[in-house]
């Protein structure tokens, strides 16, 4: 079958994370039964276990929602929800499910979906960013804007978590910012006068998620795989990407480095605890056999290992607390 992007219907890519189920339900409820575009939804979800989001969205509105199968065509009036642990993207006129590298720590990731609809459908795509933390979706919405598509963002003051909406507003300068209930009306107005379907998409022959290795190498390493990170400019947004495809915004890279530091500290704590435990075993054997000449040295090693481990535990507590305070302050400022 043909897979020409020009035969595909217009598509609306919707991104959400924390607090996103309520926003997605409100958005779905606002879509009319004769909606003339395909709807593609990415919600950040755990990689294991089933997703019940399609059932929730089907009950919430007039359109059917389901997980797609890899390679199925885009169909207007159907909500396709990214399944757990798979990127969902558009390639030509079809949906692809890909187990590729995580972006911003997520799979599925909103940027993957939005970038693909922009590069395959050009001005016949729309991007919507709803409630969530951090900034996944901001670069993708910039891609939609860059090809002349429609860009919309939930009002941060309405969003349960304003991080994603605020990041999208800052990076993509969306055409409309408002309550979820009004977003569908704007999209329907846009569909009433659709862009010329004969306009060429940006990269109709490209892989749905693959990006070129252009950009500038940095001295930074990927927190996922340890590979060198390259500094890329994607439709005016800066991202760091390694050779295998892990990609990060600056904020998400900081979060990844925090996780790497915490992991290294816990590994050091384990090594120190094991050193102390081994020394205790040696002391027990020495005392049971009457060989006590070196017991004092091993007891000193035990005390030193325990003290160093406690120092590192304090560093972990400070590290985690510092990151939590940063996010709490960011959310409180954003929602003020």
Instruction: Note the total helix count.
Output: 8
- Reported by name, the CATH topology of the largest domain is Rossmann fold
Given as residue ranges, the uncertain stretches (5+ residues, pLDDT < 50) are: 201-206, 328-336
Strand order of the largest sheet: 3-4-2-1-7-8-9
From the helix content, strand content and strand pairing, which structural class follows?
alpha/beta
Please explain how this structure is put together:
By secondary structure, this protein is α/β, with parallel strands linked by helices. It folds into three domains: 188 residues, Rossmann fold, CATH 3.40.50; 33 residues, no CATH class; 83 residues. It contains eight helices and 13 strands. It has a seven-stranded parallel sheet with strand order 3-4-2-1-7-8-9, with helices on both faces. A four-stranded antiparallel sheet has the order 10-11-12-13. The protein starts with 10 loop residues before the first strand and ends with a helix. The C terminus is likely disordered.
What is this structure, in a nutshell?
With 336 residues, the protein is of the alpha/beta class. It is 43% helix and 18% strand.
Q: Main attributes?
A:
single chain, 336 residues, alpha/beta, Rossmann fold, four-stranded antiparallel sheet
Set down the secondary structure blueprint.
Layout: E1 11-16, H1 20-30, E2 38-43, H2 53-60, E3 65-66, E4 79-81, E5 87-91, E6 94-98, H3 110-121, E7 125-129, H4 138-146, E8 150-154, H5 163-172, E9 176-178, H6 180-192, E10 216-221, E11 228-234, E12 237-242, E13 247-248, H7 250-289, H8 295-334
Parallel strand pairs: 1-2, 1-7, 2-4, 3-4, 7-8, 8-9
Antiparallel strand pairs: 5-6, 10-11, 11-12, 12-13
Helix pairs in contact: 1-2, 1-6, 3-4, 4-5, 7-8
């Amino acid at each position: 079958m043909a897979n020409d992007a020009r035969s595909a219907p217009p598509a609306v890519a919707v991104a959400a994370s924390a607090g996103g189920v309520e926003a997605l339900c409100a958005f779905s409820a606002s879509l009319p039964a004769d909606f003339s575009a395909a709807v593609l939804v990415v919600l950040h979800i755990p990689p294991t276990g089933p997703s019940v989001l399609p059932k929730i969205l089907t009950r919430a509105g007039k359109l059917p929602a389901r997980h797609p199968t890899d390679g199925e065509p885009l169909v207007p009036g159907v909500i396709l929800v990214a399944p757990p642990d798979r990127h969902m993207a558009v390639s030509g006129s079809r949906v692809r499910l890909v187990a590729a590298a995580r972006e911003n720590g997520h799979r599925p990731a909103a940027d993957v979906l939005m970038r693909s609809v922009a590069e395959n459908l050009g001005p016949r795509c729309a991007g919507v960013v709803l409630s969530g933390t951090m900034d996944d979706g901001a670069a993708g919405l910039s891609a939609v804007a860059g090809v002349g598509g429609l860009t919309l963002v939930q009002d941060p003051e309405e969003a349960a978590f304003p991080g994603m909406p605020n990041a999208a507003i800052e990076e993509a300068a969306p055409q409309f910012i408002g309550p979820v209930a009004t977003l569908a009306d704007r999209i329907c107005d846009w569909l009433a006068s659709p862009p010329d379907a004969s306009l060429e998409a940006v990269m109709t022959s490209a892989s749905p998620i693959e990006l070129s290795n252009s950009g500038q190498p940095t001295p930074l390493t990927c927190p996922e795989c340890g590979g060198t990170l390259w500094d890329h400019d994607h439709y005016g947004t800066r991202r760091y990407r390694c050779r295998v495809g892990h990609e990060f915004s600056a904020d998400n890279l900081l979060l990844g480095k925090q996780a790497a530091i915490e992991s290294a500290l816990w590994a050091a704590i384990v090594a120190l605890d094991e050193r102390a435990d081994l020394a205790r075993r040696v002391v027990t054997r020495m005392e049971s056999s009457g060989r006590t000449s070196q017991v004092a040295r091993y007891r000193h090693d035990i005390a030193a290992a325990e003290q160093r481990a406690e120092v590192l535990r304090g560093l972990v507590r400070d590290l985690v607390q510092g990151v939590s305070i940063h996010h709490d302050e960011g959310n409180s400022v954003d929602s003020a």
